[in-house]
Amino acid sequence: MRLVITLLILFALLVVAFAFGSQNNGMITLNYFVARTEMSIASAVSLFTFIGFLLGIFTTVLWRLLSHMKKRSK
Question: pLDDT, tens digit, for every residue of 15-68?
């Protein structure tokens, strides 16, 4: 049940972030090491919010796996 509530809160925060991002119609230029691209601020906010969400999930899963492995080795 705790997981469901946590996921609902995270989903609500993502919706709010996308709503704020959609209000920005300006264009920005993103410079990569080998390329450059132009995209709207809303797209950039959405992209980086999604990447941060995935990194957070990956880190949490990795931390839990390592924690379980340490408990089993004792």
Answer: 887 777 777 778 999 898 899 999 988 888 778 888 998 999 999 999 999 998
Q: Where are the domains of the chain?
A: 2-73
* 55, 59, 61, 63 alpha-carbon torsion, rounded to 10°: 180
8, amino acid identity: L
Among residues 2, 3, 47, 1, the alpha carbon closest in space to that of 21 is found at: 47
What would the two tokens of residue 70 be?
Answer: 């340490």
Output the pTM of the full model: 0.65
> 50 by DSSP, 3-state: which?
helix
